[in-house]
Amino acid sequence: MNTALHAPGIRGESPLTVTAWRDYDPAVCALLGMSLGDHELSRPIAQESEHLWNLGARRVVMPHPIDLTRAATGTRAAAQHTVRSLSLVRDLTARAVLVEWQLRLEPDDDETWKLLSHLQPPQHVAGPLQGDEQLLTWRHTHYLCKCLWRQGPGFIQIRDRRWGDLRRFTSDEAHYHQAIALLDYGAEAASVPQDVLADFTEEHLVLTVGEFAWWLPYRVKRWIQEAMAI
């Protein structure tokens, strides 16, 4: 059975609510006609992020922190909600939309922020003692296309610069492509071929959220320079 979170009918127990504007600059957002108001996102995130972009959203505020602590992701519904929230940040980052969000981690978690460092930096990181230092590094080292994947004729390639150098993962094997489609918006870890999941985990390309595994790289929507240079 396909248990991906973007499969028809699997939308999480509670919808996400965001506020959107037509511009990046808060001063401009205060002008008449720039607000797009509040939006309750209950459809699959791929559809919702596309819809927000088509509405003209260039700044999106998520009012509730994305909580990756074990206590907050211990139930299936909570883990689904967290994966949906992360997927929205990832998809909007891929479009260079300004996302204002907050992240909560375990107090001893010094690694997860690095896995997420290709995403738009959050406004605040709660939990780790070094949270402020991590956030400052995240902001200073973030740029678009830091960790992306693309699909060519008969192959997929991931290009990852989160660790300071360029790391590439290329595959022409169909079951890797199928696994990415399954993981893209979250899937039960047990439903993914374990050899593929092990390879992706070793390459730091998936994040475990409760019982789910979630695909970290984004499929870029807006190139910062000619595609051949990325």
How would the blueprint of this fold be written?
Blueprint: E1 16-21, H1 26-29, E2 35-41, H2 45-55, E3 59-61, E4 66-67, H3 76-94, E5 98-100, E6 102-104, H4 112-115, E7 124-126, H5 131-141, E8 147-152, E9 155-160, E10 167-171, H6 174-183, E11 187-188, H7 194-202, E12 206-209, E13 212-215
Parallel strand pairs: 3-5, 4-6, 6-7
Antiparallel strand pairs: 1-2, 1-3, 8-9, 9-10, 11-13, 12-13
Helix pairs in contact: 2-3
Describe this entry's structure for a reader:
With 230 residues, this protein is α/β, with parallel strands linked by helices. It has one domain (16-229). Helices cover 30% and strands 23% of the residues. It contains 7 helices and 13 strands. It has helices at 26-29, 45-55, 76-94, 112-115, 131-141, 174-183, 194-202; strands at residues 16-21, 35-41, 59-61, 66-67, 98-100, 102-104, 124-126, 147-152, 155-160, 167-171, 187-188, 206-209, 212-215. The strands form 4 sheets. The chain has a 4-stranded mixed β-sheet, covered by helices on one side. The protein has a 3-stranded parallel β-sheet with strand order 4-6-7. α2 (45-55) packs parallel to α3 (76-94). The longest helix has 19 residues, at 76-94. It is globular, with a radius of gyration of 17 Å. The protein starts with 15 loop residues before the first strand and ends in a 15-residue tail after the last strand.
